[in-house]
Every structure is written in structure tokens, then in C-alpha cells.
Amino acid sequence: MRIISKAGVLIINLIVFGFSAQAQIEGLFAPYDCRRHAEVMVEPVIDTLSSISLQALNPVQPELDIIIDTLNGWKDWRFVQNFQYGKDRGDMPMIVEVNALHPYFRDQIITLIANCKQQGIDLAVVESYRTHAKQSEYKGMGKKYTRSGAGKSKHQYGLAVDLVPIVDSVAVWDDKILWKRIGVVGEQLGLRWGGRWKKPYDPGHFEWTGGVPTSQLSVGKLPPIVNQEQNYPCIEDDIKLLQRYWKEWEINQSSMARK
Ligand SMILES: [Zn+2]
After folding, report:
1. How far apart are CA 102 and CA 93, in angstroms?
2. Distance, CA 42 to ligand 1 centroid (Å)?
3. Ligand 1 (ion): which residues have CB within 5 A?
4. How far, in Å, from the CA of 186 to the mean position of ligand 1?
5. How many angstroms separate the alpha carbon of residue 33 from the centre of ligand 1?
């Protein structure tokens, strides 16, 4: 079993009793399916052979049988090199994967990108989830980059993202009017926009915490979601899995950190 991430859509290959099917879901944590039949938090991941023998004992509907790679799923996350966006952003690559974000926030960002696209504005993700190690690296690079130490940025909770408009294949950083248009779209979705800040003015930054302060996020409190039961019934499991993935990235990135 494997999961392929392509153009923001996960295509899951299912092979059951020689039957092959493809199921598409809108993201790693599709709110509507609640992954009723998914293998979640299974360690180690069941390989194809034993998976088939288990299914022989306990057959399930193939279309509901979604396998999520709980150990290695994070390896499919897209990242870019530091200079992709034209300035020194540390030694470690930046994660640009929207699936690395809190599922509710991820959906708001997907909507933000789609709404801007409707206005003719193309956006690229500069950085989504950011490890504690990378946050420390930014802190060490000076106030121009961040004033927040490790664990203090919403990026460490999958609740912040940095975006940039792309015009003629080039990232445009200094068009304040364009930034404002993007910022307003984000604010309409209930997101906090870094373009309102003075130090630093951070117009590519959007975050959402549902009013939960960082001190509470850091001890595991989750932001409240309207109609959570209806729209995000598996949110706690989703976050647990995300936290495992974040931990793997932390291990992966710490070894590269600028000392
Ligand atoms: Zn940011």
C-alpha cells in the first residue's frame, strides 16, 4: 500500500483480493470520511501481504478501505530549498505542504488560495509547518526573520502559513496593494493577517488559533471548531497523527540545523 501525493490530491491505491481500485480524497484528513476503515495509529504499518490476509478474515467494503501510512506519510510532504524564494531562509528546507497544517486551518488556506485565484491572484506556499529547530534557526538570524523562539510561532502548531503572490512565475514581495487584496480575503475567512503587524510587517503570514493562546497550544490544547462533530469528527486523531509526522520532521531537520 502506498500513498502518492500529486497536485494536492492524494491518490490511494487499493489492492484487495486482486481487485484494484483508486480512491480520491481531498486531502490527508478528509473531514467527511472520518477514516472509519482507515488504519490509523497502527505501528508497524501492515504490509500488503498481511493486510490481505487480515481482510480475508474480516472483509470490508473496498471503497471504504482507506489505508493511511501512519509511519511514513510525512515523507511525501513537499518542501523547497532555502533560496527558492530569493533570500537566506536558513540551512534547512522549508515545508510547503498544506497537509502539514491543522486540518481546519488547511481548509481555510485552500479556500484562501482558491478565492484569490478567482480574483486572478496566484499564490504559492513559502512555508507551512515549521519545526522548532527551524524556528530556532530563524531566531538566530535576527529580528528581520522572527521575534519568536521555538514553540512560540503558530507555525509550530500547523496554525500558520506563509504565502507569496506569483506574477509571471516570479514571487512578488513588495507590492503592498496586492498584499492588501490577499490579506482582506484571508481576513474574510477569519484568519489573522501578518500584514496588520508593524514589527515585523509580515504580509505573507496568515494564522488562526480560534483564540487559544500559544501557552495553551504548547500543552496540547486544540482550537475550537464550529460544528466540529459534523465537519471534523476525527480532529483529535488527525492531530495525533500530524504530531507524529511533525516529530519525524523535527528529527529530520534538527540534524541539519545551523549551529
Ligand atoms: Zn509566518
Report:
1. 20
2. 33
3. 160, 162, 205
4. 14
5. 30
Cα 193 to ligand 1 centroid, rounded to whole Å: 10
pLDDT at residue 142, as a whole number:
84
Of 102, 87, 77, 197, the C-alpha closest to 157 is 102
Ligand 1 centroid to Cα of residue 241, in Å, is 23
Question: How many CA atoms lie less than 13 Å away from 87 in the CB half-sphere?
Answer: 8
pLDDT at site 253: 87
Mean pLDDT, the chain, integer: 80
Strands 3-6 and 170-171: unpaired
pLDDT in tens, 149-199: 877 899 999 999 999 999 999 999 999 999 999 999 999 999 999 999 998
What mean pLDDT comes out for the span 216-238? 88
Distance from residue 66's CA to the centre of ligand 1 (Å): 33
- The residue extents of the domains of the chain are 3-74, 77-254
Q: Ligand 1: distance of its center to the CA of 130 in Å?
A: 9
Task: Give 195's DSSP letter.
Answer: G
Q: What percent of the chain has pLDDT over 90?
A: 50
CATH 3.30.1380.10 describes domain 77-254: yes
Distance 190 CA to ligand 1 centre (A): 16
More confident residue, 110 or 31: 110
Q: What is the DSSP string of 77-102?
A: --EE-GGGGSS---SS-EE--GGGS-
160 alpha carbon – ligand 1 mean position (Å): 6
- Give 158: exposed, middle or buried? Use CB within 10 Å, 0-12, 13-18, 19+: buried
pTM greater than 0.90: no
What pLDDT was estimated at residue 257? 64
Task: State the distance from the centre of ligand 1 to the C-alpha of 194, rounded, in angstroms.
Answer: 8
